[in-house]
Amino acid sequence: AYEKTESDLPWVVYQVNLGMPSPTFLAFVPMKALGQNDDLLKRRESLHRAEGEAAERMQQIAREAYARTESNLYSINPEKSHVSKEFAAGDPEFWTPKPQATAKPERKKSRNSKGTDTKPRK
């Protein structure tokens, strides 16, 4: 069914071994932009059609099997991440961005009580 939807959205599933009730599974769907989440929601209908008659059975299994579901949005900050050079080489623009030049603010001349310019003090 996934192939029939012609989706190019990657995903990965992990099973939690410690620290949460068992069985717990985490599914991650990486997105470059939040608009991809809208696309994912639109694809649910096409996935439902692609699954055909099995779709209702799969939904019933999910209702019976899932104790609860939760959706979270995470953001990765490359400045606070520690990845290997080999990993960063996969997307150097993201992991090692060039610092942006900051414009220096102009110093305003101060005026005295007579309205004439004074030299800034050092």
Q: How would you sum up this structure, described in words?
A:
With 122 residues, the chain is of the alpha+beta class. Helices cover 30% and strands 11% of the residues. The chain has helices at residues 35-51, 54-65, 85-88, 92-95, and strands at 12-16, 24-28, 110-111, 117-118.
End-to-end Cα distance: 72 Å
Total strand count, please?
4
Number of helices: 4
How are the strands of the largest sheet arranged?
Answer: 1-2
Q: Gyration radius, to the nearest Å?
A: 27 Å
Beta content: 5-15%
- Helix and strand sequence: EEHHHHEE
Residue share in helices?
25-40%
- Major sheet attributes: 2 strands, antiparallel
Q: What's the shape?
A: elongated
Which stretches are poorly predicted, pLDDT < 50 over at least 5 residues?
A: none
Structure summary:
This protein is an alpha+beta fold. The chain has helices at 35-51, 54-65, 85-88, 92-95, and strands at residues 12-16, 24-28, 110-111, 117-118.
